[in-house]
Specification:
heterodimer, A: 217 residues, mainly alpha, MetI-like fold, 9 helices, 0% strand, flat, B: 242 residues, alpha/beta, six-stranded mixed beta sheet, four-stranded antiparallel beta sheet, globular, binds adenosine-5'-triphosphate, binds magnesium ion
Chain lengths: 217, 242
């Protein structure tokens, strides 16, 4: 069998638009998940029992189900809840954000908890309001500790976006499958797909490790 | 300036402060000593509301600390606190450590706050260190920056929680000297410390705590020459021996 990669060039526009959707899913779900994760982390650290228990139950729930189930679940559930169809993209995004938000909240929470309690007390003792202490003293220190974890989780989200295949969105993975089936060049197309995911993920993980080393100095 | 009336505090079922009553007048220096776990840190942290209490009343500068209507942040702004482990902000330069609260809380301009910072650093003997980060300083230097940080808010009183006990012996004096100078200038100070030399020469009064209770509260001369209780005698024998 001889490999013929010309199919990749022929299908280039389709691959490109597939990667476009993958990156769009990645960026939007990261923004949403990190925002949700920050909120959940703050709730988990709240002295109010109901607030912190709600947040920890949420986190435990989403960390114990498969993402693919969440994607299906939101795909069928949201239209039922609001009484009209929302489309695969919206429901997949909501699923990714709700699901990954739980993971990001754990990273953010442990980052905040890694800052010694005395730092909080020292800020309060100078008369700063708690929000200001969080903003100027605790979060900047926490964020440094969180960067490697956030990057690693972002790589996981990048790979996880491929699961939108199940609701028929034309992301990079779905596009690959379609082109492979249509052209019969299964080996070449899947090799290219694997190489692309590998290069992007590995590249990002190298950056993550570099940052981790730099921050630990 | 600072008055505690029958203050009690519990951590869950364990009582850590028992009916503590004491007052500190303006310009007075009071040293608090006692065995480990006797509640000294907890006691001074109640004075600026870092530790809530379950019973009693605390009035600082005419303000009820535990009244829900009190703006506790506004009170803390002019009551300084110095911690055993310095607690400088590691991600900020010495200058920003000192100027943060004056800029954010007192709304001073950066120019003004930074100018003040230079003067304060000079006062604690650290001229020229403004651009360094805490990790580049020795323990004694860090603690002096921490003192400068609390002075930057023009405090009416400063609370010290074992300011020298995390320091190597050769650095203790540079910090005590700054504190002695402050006392001489009339600063109201409550100092948790086992530095009996400092207590003898600088403090007006010594408070001895044991098991959450204020056991003795006496002028420092009397406390050292004739401690009234067995517990204080035993404690003194131990710390003076070292
Ligand atoms: N967060 C906490 N939860 C439960 N118990 C605590 C807490 N903080 C302090 N305690 C207890 O309260 C008591 C008084 O503690 P505190 O730190 O005030 O003592 P201390 O006199 O400052 O001791 P040291 O000389 O060791 O600093 C101790 O028995 C301690 O174990
Ligand atoms: Mg203590």
């Amino acid at each position: 069998m001889t490999l013929d990669f010309s199919i990749i060039l022929e299908a280039w526009p389709a691959f490109l638009s597939g990667m476009g959707l993958t990156l769009k899913l990645l960026v939007l779900s990261l923004i949403g998940a990190i925002a949700l994760g920050t909120g959940l982390a703050a709730m988990r650290l709240s002295p109010n029992w109901f607030v912190s228990t709600f947040a920890s139950s949420y986190v435990n729930l989403f960390r114990t189900v498969p993402l693919i189930m969440a994607i299906f679940w939101f795909y069928f559930l949201i239209p039922l809840l609001i009484g009209r169809p929302v489309g695969a993209l919206t429901s997949a995004l909501v699923a990714l954000i709700f699901f990954e938000g739980a993971f990001f909240s754990e990273i953010i929470r442990s980052g905040i908890q890694a800052v010694p309690r005395g730092q909080f007390a020292a800020g309060l003792a100078t008369g700063l309001r708690p929000r200001m202490v969080m903003q100027s003293i605790v979060l900047p220190q926490a964020f440094r500790a969180m960067i490697p974890g956030l990057l690693t989780q972002s790589i996981i989200v990048f790979q996880a976006t491929s699961l939108v295949y199940v609701v028929g969105l034309s992301d990079f993975m779905t596009t690959t499958v379609r082109i492979a089936n249509g052209s019969g060049r299964i080996v070449e197309v899947y090799l290219f797909c694997a190489a692309t995911y590998f290069v992007l993920s590995y590249g990002a993980s190298v950056v993550a490790r570099y940052l981790e080393r730099r921050l630990n100095r | 300036m600072i008055a505690l009336q029958n203050v009690s505090k519990w951590y869950g079922p364990t009582q850590v402060l028992r009916e503590c009553t004491l007052s500190v007048a303006r310009g007075e220096v009071v040293v608090v000593c006692g065995p480990s776990g006797s509640g000294k840190s907890t006691l001074i942290k109640t004075m600026n509301g870092l530790e809530p209490i379950q019973h009693g009343e605390i009035v600082v500068d005419g303000v009820k600390v535990n009244d829900p209507k009190t703006d506790i942040c506004a009170l803390r702004a002019h009551i300084g606190m110095v911690f055993q482990s310095f607690e400088l902000y590691p991600h900020m330069s010495v200058r920003n450590n000192i100027a943060l609260a004056p800029i954010k809380v007192l709304r001073r301009s950066e120019t003004e706050a930074y100018k003040r910072t230079e003067a304060l650093l000079k006062r604690v003997g650290l001229e020229g260190h403004a651009d360094k980060y805490p990790a580049q300083l020795s323990g004694g230097q860090q603690q002096r920056v921490a003192i400068a940080r609390s002075l930057a808010m023009d405090p009416k009183a400063i609370l010290f929680d074992e300011p020298t006990s995390a320091l190597d012996p050769e650095m203790i004096n540079e910090v005590l000297e700054v504190m002695t100078q402050l006392a001489g200038e009339g600063m109201t100070m409550v100092v948790v410390s086992h530095e009996m030399g400092f207590a003898k020469s600088v403090a007006n009064r010594v408070i001895f705590m044991d098991a959450g209770e204020i056991v003795e509260d006496r002028p420092s001369g009397e406390f050292f020459s004739a401690p009234q209780t067995d517990r204080a005698q035993q404690f003194l024998a131990k710390v003076l021996h070292h």
